[in-house]
Amino acid sequence: MITAITGTIGSGKSLVGNILRENGKTVLDCDKINAELLSDKKYLDGLKKLFPYAFPDDKFDKKLFSQRIFGDKAEREKLNDYAHPQIFNRLQVLLAGCEDEDCFVEIPLLKDEFLPLFDRVAVVDADESIRIRRIEKRDGVDTATAKAKVAAQKCSSDYGVPTVIIKNNLGKKELADTVFSTLL
Questions:
Q1: What are the Cα distances from residue 122, in Å, to 134, 150, 155, 166?
Q2: C-alpha pair distances (Å), 171 with each of 146, 176, 177, 178
Q3: Are residues 183 and 164 in contact, defined by beta-carbon separation less than 8 angstroms?
Q4: Rounded distance, CA 168 to CA 127, Å?
Q5: Residue 148 to residues 19, 31, 58, 67, 141: CA-CA distances in angstroms?
Q6: Alpha-carbon span 31 to 33, nearest angstrom
Q7: Which of 40, 45, 52, 149 has the most Cβ atoms closer than 10 angstroms to its Cβ?
Q8: pTM for the complete prediction?
């Protein structure tokens, strides 16, 4: 069974993935796939054509790019249109090599084109105030920036495949208990 682990920024997708890894499960991470793409010259050349402002001094500035993307829906959609097909292709290759009976995929933004890859979806959710505090701490940003990141990312729970909701408002032990009871 292949399970997508999704949810909005600061919800705890990575923590769920880490709990699963600690228990011997295979967990693929779309953020890591994206990071690998950012070291691919051909991919960066495409980014440079679409977003020249992100390459001051001919070098990719991830922080500058992130600020612009989170603040501009049209730019975010343009990025998604460029990046998602490439992430999808790499994910398909990785899933084909997955030898575990159960394989999990951390995927921040679960778009319709990715759904055929999954047997079920686990949506990690947390109260907005908790997510904002997590983002502030994790990214070292102020409250306004954290709120802008939260506002830029919405998450559905209606995917047309079996879906479970994992609440992550408490601590790691409570989250682990929920992961075990819903996913394993």
A1: 20, 19, 12, 7
A2: 21, 9, 10, 11
A3: yes
A4: 8
A5: 28, 20, 28, 10, 11
A6: 5
A7: 149
A8: 0.87
